[in-house]
Design brief:
- Keywords: Antiport, Ion transport, Membrane, Transmembrane, Transmembrane helix, Transport.
- GO terms for molecular function: antiporter activity; monoatomic cation transmembrane transporter activity.
- Belongs to the monovalent cation:proton antiporter 2 (CPA2) transporter (TC 2.A.37) family.
- With 619 residues, this protein is α/β, with parallel strands linked by helices.
- It folds into three domains: 330 residues, Na+/H+ antiporter like fold, CATH 1.20.1530.20; 137 residues, Rossmann fold; 73 residues, Alpha-Beta Plaits.
- It contains 24 helices and twelve strands.
- The strands form three sheets. It has a six-stranded parallel β-sheet with strand order 3-2-1-4-5-6, sandwiched between helices. A four-stranded antiparallel β-sheet has the order 7-12-9-10, covered by helices on one side.
- Helix 6 runs antiparallel to helix 7 and helix 8 packs parallel to helix 11.
Amino acid sequence: MEHGPSVASLAIVVLAALLTPILINRLRVSFLPVVVAEIIVGVIIGRSFLDIVDASDPWLNILSTLGFIFLMFLSGLEIDFDAFTQKSSSQKKSKLLKRPLPNTLMLTIGIFLGILALSFLFAFMMQSFGVFDDVFLLVIIISTISLGVVVPTLKEANLITTQMGQVILLVAVIADLATMIMLAFYSQLYADSSQPIWLMAILVGFAILFYFLGRVMHQSQLIRQLNNGTMQIGIRGVFALIIMLVALAEGVGAENILGAFIAGCIVSLLKPDQDTVHKLDSFGYGFFIPIFFIMVGVDLDLPSLFSDNRVFILIPVLLAAFLLSKLIPVGILLRYFDLKRVTAAGFLLTSTLSLIIAAAVIAEEIGMITSAESGMFILSAVIACIITPVVFKQLYPEGENEERSINVTIIGNNQLTVPVAHSIAGGLYHVKLVFHKNYTDSREKNTENLSFNEIPEYSEECLDAINAFDADIVVLGANDSDINWRVAQMAEQHGVERIIYRVDDPTQENAVKESGFELFSTMLSSKTLLRGLIESPNMMQLLSDEETSIYEIQMNNYRYDDMMLRDFPFTGDIIFLRILRGQESLVPHGDTQLFVDDRIFMTGSREYVEELKRELELY
């Protein structure tokens, strides 16, 4: 009986993929990215040392190609396009900032243009000195930044939502997009293909069509019903999208990874729920992608690589170009941040891996570089990824978020706002009560967490003078709706995250909702309270008791992302009641996982809840 290809090599690679993260955890080398460790393991079991894996095995070739495709898909999926439309944080003050940041998008585009200009300079210098001839390929390799290293490092340090974290992330996103587009043009220009370059417009056209089709399907009630159990129509749709765009990319003469990257961008634009993203990550990083990275290491032939004397010139020069091309443009941030943070940011942006591997593999396939040169590029990327996250963690100051407090500005001084200000002031909340001198006779004294601010008028100049908009929450509680509306518009222009608007006139409700403000209606609250007293008197007493109140916490700390409640370290005097995840409401159990962006409802002692709020709502 004739047998097909042996699966022995596949079994070895899969076993290596299983054991690698376990070894990293046991050896406590958390500074090493898992993908780099997988390449190192591949080197050990591959051609360089043990040579127990057959690199020509058809099973491994197919699965490695799928891993490469899925890696590029997840790179596109990681891009948060909302970052390009977010309002500037220039008005948001911080103790860490020397001066307010300008428009974040323009700032980060400027930094990337600086990186690109220096990449051209270093590429021409390397060509002039005879180090390497292909300038276009060098520009792509030097200017690229690995989102796959930047994002996990920022998450682990709880910096991804900070101002510096957002700047680093946006620079990496822009670099990832730009260098991916440059790589697509590079492969199209130099590949031995008879297809004209304008055929790529067909790929873009179909991508736009699939995006609008995806929007329709995403909102379909039928699709939602089919997205459970054994059907999992959403995951099937994503895989269909990947394969169709990969096939289209190959059909128009482009690289298949461009189709996969575009598929990831489309799915990111459709804003999939957290559960779908976790499933896709599980498919990729749980099986396909480890095989690809291990096979990268298997194919590296270090003995023959180091027999080429150019390796001792090319790799140090590349590492220097990686670092200087990032550190110099990032220097503009010294206007806003201290030297340690800016230097750390420059080192983290030096990390580069996935796209260098993609560029090296593609350039070797189309005959532009030799296998030895491809190995040198990959080895330089691996070294950069080992060093830069470690240096970033050592340089970046710790404890940035330890003293976090929530600043609340309340507009108006009346029987509603004053008691609320007194009741929440203290501990986590710092409250600023702002009122017009003609509207009150109150002359209460300021305390550590509650200040009374009398102003001659509700103008932008007067409100800026007392830093009224330097707040996480602005509450519009004045008795005059015209004042509330004017100040709400000012708060929105100053970039205040949450604006709570008191509405006494029912005709104003729609306008307030359309503006995106949180609505508080005195009439509706009174009706709800009266109904509660009639139907559930004991429940209303429970809710009004400070020690048994129900609290809401927004989960922003990536340290606890994907953690089960039974493993949650803060289980003192609190009871978890509900978890809201998107449109889904969950009853928490021991095996319920916490995810970033979850809204957690709990009851317990106020002090303990405030401690938990500080930990989970880090910004």
